[in-house]
């Protein structure tokens, strides 16, 4: 399992609303293609880009963009977050 959990903060929610992007904490060993495949497999939406970064606490965070404009909101509602 590459994805740990969605990263939901006030800033992440603003990015969701303005740019249709979700943020996930992922395993440190995960590559961008692996993250893309796992998100497409679990949630059934096409991913356009995956950007990764290391947080100051040493966690790896993936910022994911979707082709469908409503995909990010639908995924969070399915997870019971929004």
UniProtKB/TrEMBL annotation:
Record bears the keyword Plastid: no
Keyword set includes Glycoprotein: no
Keywords, ordered alphabetically: Ribonucleoprotein, Ribosomal protein, RNA-binding, rRNA-binding
GO CC annotation terms, alphabetical: ribonucleoprotein complex; ribosome
Pfam families reported in the protein's UniProt record: Ribosomal_L23
Top-level taxon of origin: Archaea
GO biological process, one term: translation
GO molecular function: rRNA binding; structural constituent of ribosome
Family to which this protein belongs: Belongs to the universal ribosomal protein uL23 family.
Quaternary organization: Part of the 50S ribosomal subunit. Contacts protein L29.
Function: Binds to 23S rRNA. One of the proteins that surrounds the polypeptide exit tunnel on the outside of the ribosome.
Name by which UniProt lists this protein: Large ribosomal subunit protein uL23
């Amino acid at each position: 399992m590459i994805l740990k959990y969605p990263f939901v903060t006030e800033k992440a929610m603003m990015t969701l609303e303005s740019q249709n992007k979700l943020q996930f904490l992922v395993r440190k060993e995960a590559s961008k293609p692996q993250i893309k495949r796992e998100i497409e497999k679990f949630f059934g939406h096409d991913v356009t880009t995956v950007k990764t970064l290391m947080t100051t606490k040493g966690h790896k965070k993936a910022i994911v963009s979707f082709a469908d404009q409503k995909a990010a909101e639908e995924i969070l509602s399915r997870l019971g977050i929004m």
